[in-house]
Amino acid sequence: MDSIFNNPAFSGMSPEKLQFLMSFIQKDKPTSMKDIMPFLMANMRQAKDQKLDFTKPEIQVICELLCKDLPGEEQERVKKVMSLLSLNKPT
Q1: pLDDT higher for 65 or 54?
Q2: Are 67 and 75 in contact (CB under 8 A)?
Q3: Whole-number mean pLDDT of the chain?
């Protein structure tokens, strides 16, 4: 679990973001694509309420965390959706 914080995307991250991510990591993750998006949206709303804004590399790592326990086909679907969402977002 701590190894994800060795990722360069997390270097220099604020303590508030780190706390949010630790909480996120400890949550039970959905195991199907249909449940991932509502889960992700609820957590994004919570981050927004806390005035936390994540960078594109941070979001990519978060999505990797969500996908790691999904079957291969489901992982690919999540990656496609996330790549479509990130096309319209500035870095």
Answers
A1: 54
A2: yes
A3: 78
